[in-house]
Amino acid sequence: MLANKTIVLGITGSIASYKSADLASKLTQAGARVEVIMTESATRFISPITFRGVTSRPVVTSMWEMSSGFSIEHVALAESADIIVIAPATADIIAKLANGIADDSLTCTVLATKAPVLIAPAMDTGMWRNSITQENVARLKTRDFTFIEPGYGHLASGCVGEGRLADIRIIIDTIRQILGRNGDMAGKRIVVTAGGTHEAIDPVRYIGNRSSGKMGFAVAEAARNRGAGVVLITGPTALPDPAGIEVIHIQTAIQMKKAVVKTVAKADVLIMAAAVADYMPKRQTTQKIKKTAAGRALTLDLVETPDILAEVKGGFLRVGFAAETEDIIENATRKLRNKQLDLIAANDVTASNSGFEVDTNRVTIISQDGKSEALPLMSKKEIAERILDRVLKLLLRR
Predict the structure, then answer these.
(1) Which of 38, 98, 236, 250 is the most buried (most CB within 10 A)?
(2) Would 1 be classed as within a structural domain?
(3) What is the distance between the alpha carbons of residues 151 and 163, in angstroms, rounded to a whole number?
(4) pLDDT tens-digit map of 264-296
């Protein structure tokens, strides 16, 4: 997604500018060509040498220095950019852009470009909330500038409030979303489920499983990066919500089914990567069950949870996952046919490198016609792309 993309990174005079070094480094590691433009005030907070070191590219700091290799920097960078990202963006740079002021390399580049512009503000709470700043932000939004809202927390002034630079992960996720707007899944709506469910026994205990949600999150993020509108329905996980995706948090299988039914009506694809509990307690006590005499067993009456894939019907493609411990292909094929799925991805969860809670997977994708494709061990992000490739082929046949 970011490989071979030219990202112009604008840095302005904010105490948060040191965080931009991490952003530039991560974008470079992802394969992007990062061209950094620093305002004069930004150089008071962090040295251009830092950015040259992490990007291996010259840094533009003045309209009057031709050190970058570009003949007319603001024009050349404006034309070569796939996206311009200003992070951190001060109230000053926002005001200049809103009023068409072009008095340095960064503002000139933004005014000259046809590429999308992403702005991540960082400033004191009072400055961010000031009506003038908000009017400038609103004006830029009408001109198709994209903003990432600043975070809440401790600020350099010692105050607590809005104004912190958004998390680097969120900025990179948003870059991916913007660059993927015209991807091969643009205009498609995909509902993805992820994580396990927690079926309560009492207010303290529950029946659950070891699902980390990583596979479902990878599918949702990959679909977003290819231009799809994505709804992610997730059980409890330790993963942060992905940017640019509608996320619905649930606890139980019943709640997940309700969320799927509500969101899938207008969907093109439903991808059930969640590890939904097969059983739930018949009754949930309102108070914590106390441990009594030593050696006394606790008996639970269990009933089946809803079979979401089997029960939710519609004109959308349906993709399932089969986490198996034996007879992997046979069990997955049976599930595919019984639930009338278009595709199913089967894997052996007993394998240490392709089961729960790891970043890699080894799956076999089985289609309705019984044909299967065994994928080698790869990252869950790569697996997600391979599954979406198959989904796209099915969508194009419709």
Answers:
(1) 38
(2) no
(3) 6
(4) 999 999 999 999 999 999 999 999 988 876 767
Residue 184 lies in a domain: no
- The CA distance from 111 to 397, in Å, is 42
Which residue in the block uniquely carries the two structure tokens 């009754």?
A: 283
Buried b (16+ CB within 10 A) or exposed e, 328-366: beeebbebbeebebbbbbbbbbeeeebbbeeebbbbbbb
Mean pLDDT of 38-52: 96
Rounded distance between C-alpha atoms, residue 70 and residue 80, angstroms: 11
Domain that residue 362 falls in: 189-397
Answer with the one of 161, 179, 197 that is the final residue of a domain: 179
As a residue count, the chain comes to 398
Average pLDDT over the chain, rounded to an integer: 93
Active-site residue list:
209
* Predicted pLDDT of residue 70: 46
Give the pair of three-digit tokens for residue 82: 């796939």
Last residue of one domain, picked from the residues 146, 179, 212: 179
Q: Which of 12, 7, 92 is nearest to 46 (CA)?
A: 12
Which of 271, 264, 244 is closest to 183 using CA atoms?
Answer: 244
